[in-house]
Design brief:
Elements: E1 4-8, H1 21-32, H2 39-46, H3 50-69, H4 76-82, E2 86-90, H5 95-104, E3 113-115, H6 123-133, E4 138-143, H7 146-150, E5 158-161, H8 170-184
Parallel strand pairs: 1-2, 1-4, 2-3, 4-5
The structure holds magnesium ion.
């Protein structure tokens, strides 16, 4: 299990972030000067520009507000305990917001590294970074967005979708990973 790696998305996997999305989209559209309707594409396309940094700061404010009201899913700590390999958090939320949440719930120590959107414009870029560091190791990635899972399938990662809204549990997903891994040896 030491050579296995688990990468978790944040929103929809570790916690549910109740961000005021209509407001965020309208503010980002304002600074962009055009109507932004899809943040994932926006981050990808503006990564490395001053617009990216500007939008990042604006959204961070809303995320900070949301984080106060957000709660961790109740199976997260047990799942983190169960998985004995290295763990990463890869999220398109801001680094500051992620660190704050993890500290508040006392779970920062479980993660080898926390990857926020500040240094990475996309989930794919985050996973490529992790693969670089974990060469030769088996990587499992859990996300609640089919789009993120699809965009990483060709990287040689085991990409797993979690649908919390359908009652799926992270603990169950991790149990399956651990069981599958011990069968395969
Ligand atoms: Mg998510």
């Amino acid at each position: 299990m030491e050579n296995t790696v688990l990468v978790l998305d944040f929103d929809g996997v570790v916690a549910k972030l109740n961000v005021d999305w209509p407001k965020v989209y309208s503010r980002v559209s304002e600074v962009a000067g055009y109507r932004v309707t899809d943040l994932i594409t926006f981050w990808k396309n503006t990564y490395g520009t001053s617009l990216y940094d500007k939008a990042n700061k604006i959204i961070e404010e809303y995320e900070m507000e949301a984080i106060e009201k957000s709660e961790i899913y109740d199976d997260v700590i047990e799942a983190l305990e169960l998985f004995k390999g290295r763990k990463y958090l890869a999220s398109m939320q801001s680094q500051k917001v992620l660190e704050k949440f993890l500290e508040e719930y006392g779970i920062r120590g479980y993660f080898k590294e926390v990857l926020g959107r500040d240094r990475f414009g996309s989930k794919r870029r985050q996973l490529i970074y992790i693969l670089e560091k974990e060469k030769g190791n088996k990587v499992y990635f859990i996300d609640d967005l089919q789009r993120n899972v699809d965009s990483c399938i060709d990287l040689g990662i085991e990409c797993i979708i979690i649908r919390r809204y359908e009652g799926e549990s992270l603990l169950q997903k991790v149990r399956e990973i651990v069981a599958g891994h011990s069968i395969k040896g």
